[in-house]
Design brief:
Blueprint lengths: L5 H14 L4 H10 L4 H9 L4 H12 L3 H9 L4 H8 L1 H6 L2
Helix pairs in contact: 1-2, 1-3, 2-3, 4-6
């Protein structure tokens, strides 16, 4: 792509997006949009706090409501992470 250090860019970008409440799928999509190699993208994601922990922290901070679950889903959090963070509320809301 032309970045001086793709790994460093990917790691910093992934951390910044995770800090803004993005899930792994959203971060992966963003990094792939920068034409980074799959190995670089995967390594950057592996360096983050696990997605389920990030989802649980956000759910606790924002409230464990269907609206919050939908918001996190739009930001790229996967079903497993949302299920761990919201439990039965996800099934009840049909997400």
């Amino acid at each position: 792509v032309g970045y001086v250090d793709d790994e460093r860019f990917a790691t910093a970008r992934a951390a910044a997006l995770a800090g803004r409440g993005w899930g792994d799928a959203g971060i992966r999509h963003d990094l792939e949009g920068h034409a980074l190699a799959q190995e670089v993208v995967s390594a950057a994601l592996d360096g983050l706090t696990p997605e389920s922990e990030r989802a649980a922290e956000l759910a606790a901070r924002l409230g464990r409501t269907p609206k919050t679950a939908a918001q996190l889903a739009r930001k790229g959090f996967g079903e497993d992470a949302l299920g761990a963070a919201f439990g039965e509320q996800i099934a009840d809301a049909g997400l």
